[in-house]
Specification:
heterodimer; A: alpha/beta; ABC transporter transmembrane region fold; Rossmann fold; 2 domains; six-stranded mixed β-sheet; four-stranded antiparallel β-sheet; 19 helices; 12 strands; disordered N terminus; B: alpha/beta; 18 helices
């Protein structure tokens, strides 16, 4: 197919690596491979038995004049073999797909555990949709490997040898032809692959640019129309499509050549065997039965070898799903859990000290550069600064979702590096910039920090967060389904839901990240009041662009060039 | 006749789009059938060859059979090569036809006929569905033709040798080619529906785990979500295993039938040999013919699945392309006036008749050389006003005019040259930076592009780029930050020198200082006599505008009093 037969050689190599890893790391994958080998051997034995018995029947009837009654026993055996072949093939096909389903499920579990227990917060919002799609739907792609390629490898290794061993005693000359021609197939496969690799690679970069052209135009159609360019771009679809076709066909003419050579080898092999057998039969040096066995088995010997190449390419394309999951699994742990964690201090009673914090991101340079901050218990600090300046980074460091490049964070004199990060996070309630709403009722969403919260507590939190209006407007109130598949809330409403969640937590420290971004000025006022209530009796850090959100702060700091300085408000009117 | 039957279903209409390719399709099917027949011929003549040889004739009398074996062997490979080239060429050509035609149909519908907000998801699914149709000929339509042609030839050849054997073979081929695919198709439909639901559940849980992992971890609820995901996963895996069994059943039945066909045909043929109805020398050929002919029906199961997938895709595509166009072009357009304001008069608009109005009694105007800001809460319908101004949509009531002339009497293309919209989240196309800016004015020379990029504050950035205007941007291009993207979009709009410039949320991704500086540049458009309307949820500097309008809760626009200071 067009999609699968234009792949980059580099991705094939990476795919091979991923395949090896899948087999190594997965117990169910190995069990499944063992089963496949057993079934493959069974299938081969049945094919040989079938050919032999059929040859006996035909030779018996044709040469020795046997009647239906004479060969009925053999025919019954042949019918049984047909049924047995069906059963083995059933097992062969479904066990491969079972394996793929189990391996994919195992990968999903490992992905979830890695993200939740070791590296929370390491997938970006915009990336997670794609990752999930691959983790859930990637199983079809993996099937190409487990249900087709792997069995084919097994068959390619066992079937030719078994058939050769069976054929030689019947006719060593035909056996010799097969023994010489069969290895030529993998040999030519590799040779042709090597010869065409460079050419394929050169075409690849151009092709990948051309192939996304249509998606690009459709995604940007509104922009094209606004500039009156949509009609002229329609013509470019035809032009680019034609160019893509010509380039790809050029690549395929070479690519299919390899299949042609392999097929030609197999076909010539069969024809040579048939001719050799025929001549020996005519000269009387071979019996018909032997000749038929050889003839029936010759194509079966080449078949698995020829298919090996095709299946590999299909399976290489399917590795993308596993690759992107491995990518997440391979990310080093961002926070180390100490072997013997120290008891966790409470930021409600002891101050938080941040000294010489440094954080470097590749491509962005030092986002934090020797940052110092001390938060006294019960104090509320506002934090402003340009976007991309490292405010959210600071929040994630305090949450111990990441470790600083240098410097340390301590609470009550205890270095947070020596406490269990999971225990530490229990001390904090956090409202992120873009809160996640979970699929379920609004009440259930609100109870994130306190799953046992009663209706009264929920109602109180809703009131404090200024959500009463929203809840009253919902058809089923607190039981309304929100999140994926339910009612969609705006970013502003999600932020208020996240604030209401926070009211249900008794954690002594609050981290708020841009709680009023995306809000118009009326809602901003409501939310600012809620922030005041939330931070009243807790230690708090409030990050915001907007001045109103941090109006109640005890002091306001500015994060600029990786350090904190007291914030000097500019004259009113210059910025909101 | 064929055309009228085809035009009754979405899939048929998709096939009609590519009607220019039917000759190629015929070639592809013909070559495919010849390929299968060559394989059948090879085995059948081999069987005959060795049976005949066993009768120990003169070697010379075997020559024809030997040549036949070689001929079929070599032509099989060559035919297959040719068939693959022709069928892939066909797939590419028909894909281009489909893309071209469906894009043309999509153009007048975006964004007006799509729900608000016009979702990127919908469009990317549209692209996926159009691309899925490349399987139409290659995988869905060709195999049945090949199976039919080769099946008929095989049965006919068998009938010449022994009619009874041909009947048995025909039954086996029908079971394998129609019965088994029908069975699996039915099973796949049933489990497909259940799987879709289970997968959606699992995707939902996993999306929460991936996107919300930090929040779940901070709340200490990791175990709850692991459990949630595991439960959904168990359901999905159970259904997938059932599916695998169905697939295994199809494979098993087909294998059994093809092996059984040889046995059954042989069993029928043996008494015929006894009775002298069939020459013994043909027995092996007949058995091998039966076995080999199954190659024709093997691809039919996947072809049925592929056909279903194509039909679903075609249906989803039409669900979009068959929507009524939101805007009709006038038969005889009047020219766009070259002066006078852009004005709204008692405009009312609802996305659908049954929904409440988003805009109600909207009255305002933007004059030449004037900079106006339009503010209002998110979701209030500000972007709808922008879309109405360039006729991506039409109002349900009231009028929108340029220089007193209703927009509906003008050519929409001409109007958009005069009233230019920089949409929210302007798109950067894969290509060079220069190409992307030149979208605003294809005739602009590089100097003008450099100048306008300098004007929007990208001068230093451009100087730092190794490839300058030739730098690749967009998907697969070099990284462009959200702020740079917005400045490029602004440059694009400024380049065309339209009479009115409408910027929808031009500063949404910028920090306060960046927003302020870009806003001032855009407002500066009025110095050249253009009317500038900036739509935003937060103005950086209200004092910089001539007027500030507000879209309020009553869905109408009113002038905001003296500039407020926050």
């Amino acid at each position: 197919m067009a999609r699968t037969e234009t792949r980059a050689p580099d991705s094939s190599r990476r795919a091979r690596e991923t395949q090896r890893r899948l087999v190594r790391s997965s117990g169910s994958a190995r069990a499944h491979i063992a089963l496949t080998v057993a079934l493959g051997l069974g299938a081969t034995a049945l094919i040989i038995a079938q050919a032999t018995l059929l040859a006996m029947v035909i030779a018996g009837v044709f040469m020795d004049g046997q009647s239906l009654g004479d060969v009925s026993g053999l025919l019954i055996w042949l019918a049984l073999i047909a049924v047995a072949r069906g059963l083995v093939s059933l097992g062969f096909e479904s066990s491969g797909r079972f394996g793929a389903a189990r391996v994919m499920s195992e990968l999903r579990r490992r992905l979830a555990e890695r993200l939740l227990l070791v590296n929370p917060g390491t997938t970006r919002h915009d990336h997670s949709g794609e990752l999930v799609a691959q983790a859930v739907d990637g199983v079809e792609a993996l099937e190409a490997y487990f249900a087709r390629y792997l069995p084919q490898v097994v068959l390619a290794a066992t079937v030719p040898i078994a058939i050769l061993a069976w054929v030689f005693p019947y006719d060593w000359k035909a056996g010799l032809i097969l023994a010489i021609t069969a290895p030529l197939i993998p040999l030519f496969m590799v040779l042709i692959g090597l010869l065409t690799e460079g050419r394929t690679r050169r075409r690849w970069s151009l092709l990948s640019r051309l192939s996304s052209h249509f998606l690009d135009l459709v995604a940007g159609l509104q922009t094209l129309r606004a500039y009156g360019r949509a009609e002229s771009q329609a013509d470019s679809i035809a032009a680019v499509g034609e160019r893509y076709r010509r380039e790809t066909m050029g690549a395929l003419r070479i690519g299919f050549l390899s299949a042609l050579v392999l097929e030609l080898l197999a076909m010539i092999g069969v024809a040579m065997v048939a001719t050799a057998v025929g001549i020996q039969l005519a000269s009387g040096s071979l019996q018909l039965e032997a000749g038929l066995v050889v003839l029936l088995l010759a194509p079966e010997l080449y078949m698995p070898l020829r298919q090996l190449g095709n299946q590999f390419h299909a399976s290489a394309d399917g590795m993308a799903a596993a690759e992107s999951i491995f990518e997440v699994l391979d990310q080093p742990a961002r926070v180390e859990v100490p072997a013997r964690p120290v008891a966790v201090p409470s930021p409600g009673e002891a101050g938080l000290e941040i000294e010489g914090l440094e954080m470097l991101f590749p491509g962005r340079g030092k986002v934090l550069d020797g940052l110092n901050l001390s938060l006294s218990p019960g104090e509320t600090v506002g934090l402003v600064g340009p976007s991309g300046g490292g405010k959210s980074t600071l929040v994630s460091l305090i949450l111990r979702l990441a470790s600083p490049g240098a410097g340390k964070i301590s609470c009550g004199g205890v270095d947070l590096g020596s406490v269990d990060p999971r225990e530490w996070r229990r001390q904090i309630v956090w409202v992120p910039q873009r809160p996640t709403l979970f699929a379920g009722s609004l009440a259930w969403n609100l109870s994130l920090f306190d799953p046992d919260a009663g209706d009264d507590a929920l109602a109180l939190a809703i009131g404090k967060a200024g959500l009463t209006g929203l809840v009253d407007g919902l058809p089923e109130g607190m039981d309304t389904l929100i999140g994926d598949g339910g009612r969609r809330l705006s970013v502003g409403q999600s932020q208020r839901v996240a604030l209401a969640r926070a009211f249900l937590s008794r954690a002594p420290m609050v981290l708020l990240d841009e709680p009023t971004a995306h809000l118009d000025s009326d809602s901003e006022e409501t939310v600012s009041r809620a922030i005041g209530l939330l931070t009243a009796d807790r230690t708090a850090l409030v990050v915001s662009h907007r001045r109103r959100a941090i109006a109640g702060a005890d002091r306001v700091l500015e994060l600029r060039e990786g350090r904190l300085t007291p914030f000097e408000p500019q004259p009113a009117g210059a910025a909101t | 006749m064929i055309a009228s039957r085809l035009s009754r279903s979405p899939l048929g209409r998709a096939v009609l789009v590519t009607r220019g390719r039917w000759r190629r399709f015929a070639w592809s099917a013909l070559l495919g059938a010849a390929t299968v027949l060559a394989a059948v011929g090879l085995l059948t003549t081999s069987g005959y060859l060795i049976s005949r040889a066993a009768e120990k004739p003169e070697i010379l009398s075997l020559t024809v059979a030997i040549v036949g074996v070689r001929f079929f062997g070599i032509s099989r490979s060559l035919l297959r090569y040719a068939e693959r080239l022709v069928s892939h060429d066909l797939a590419f050509r028909s894909l281009t036809d489909l893309r071209f035609r469906f894009f043309e149909r999509l153009v007048p519908l975006v964004p007006g006929a799509l729900d608000q907000p016009a979702s990127a998801d919908l469009l990317s699914r549209f692209v996926g569905d159009v691309d899925r149709l490349q399987d139409l000929y290659l995988r869905a339509l060709t195999p049945p033709f090949i199976a039919l042609a080769t099946g008929l030839v095989c049965v006919a050849v068998a009938a010449v040798m022994l009619p009874a054997a041909a009947a048995v073979l025909a039954v086996m081929l029908l079971l394998g080619g129609v019965g088994v695919p029908g069975l699996t198709r039915w099973a796949a439909r049933v489990s497909g529906r259940r799987q879709a639901a289970a997968r959606a559940e699992l995707s939902g849980a996993m999306l929460e785990v991936t996107a919300g992992s930090a929040e779940i971890a901070v709340a200490g609820r990791e175990a709850d979500w692991l459990k949630r995901m595991t439960e959904a996963d168990t359901d999905v895996v159970a259904l997938q295993k059932r599916d695998a069994l169905n697939g295994g059943l199809a494979a098993g039945l087909t294998t059994m039938l093809s092996a059984g066909a040889a046995v059954a045909v042989t069993a029928v043929a043996i008494p015929a040999v006894d009775d002298g109805l069939l020459a013994g020398v043909l027995l092996a050929a007949l058995a091998l013919l039966a076995m080999a002919s199954f190659e024709a029906v093997l691809p039919l199961g996947p072809a049925a699945a592929s056909l279903d997938a194509c039909a679903d895709a075609a249906e989803r595509i039409e669900e979009i392309t068959e929507r009524p166009p939101p805007v009709l072009e006038p038969a005889i357009p009047v020219p766009v006036p070259t002066d006078g304001p852009l004005s709204f008069e008692a405009v009312r608009f609802a996305y659908r008749p049954e929904l409440p109005a988003v805009l109600d009694a909207v009255d305002f105007s933007v004059g030449s050389g004037e900079a106006v800001a339009l503010v209002g809460p998110s979701g209030a319908g500000k972007s709808t006003i922008a879309e109405l101004m360039v006729r991506f949509r039409d109002p349900d009531d009231g009028r929108i005019m340029v220089g007193g002339v209703d927009l509906r009497s003008m050519d929409p293309g001409r109007l958009r040259e005069s009233v230019r919209l920089a949409p929210q989240d302007s798109y950067l196309f894969t290509g060079t930076l220069g190409e992307n800016v030149a979208l605003g004015d294809p005739t602009a020379c590089p100097e003008e592009i450099v100048e306008v990029l300098g004007r929007v504050g990208l001068g230093p950035w451009l100087d730092g780029l190794d490839d300058g205007l030739e730098t690749l941007v967009g998907e697969g291009g070099s990284m462009v930050s959200g702020g740079q993207r917005q400045r490029i979009a602004a440059a694009r709009c400024l380049l065309g020198r339209p009479r009115f410039m409408i910027f929808d949320e031009p500063t949404a991704h910028l920090d306060p200082e960046g927003a302020l500086s870009l806003e001032r540049i855009l407002v500066g458009g009025r110095e050249r006599g253009a009317g500038v309307l900036i739509i935003t949820h937060a103005i950086a500097d209200p004092a910089g505008f001539d007027r500030v309008l507000e879209l309020d809760a009553s869905h109408s626009v009113r002038e905001r009093g003296p500039v407020q200071v926050d």
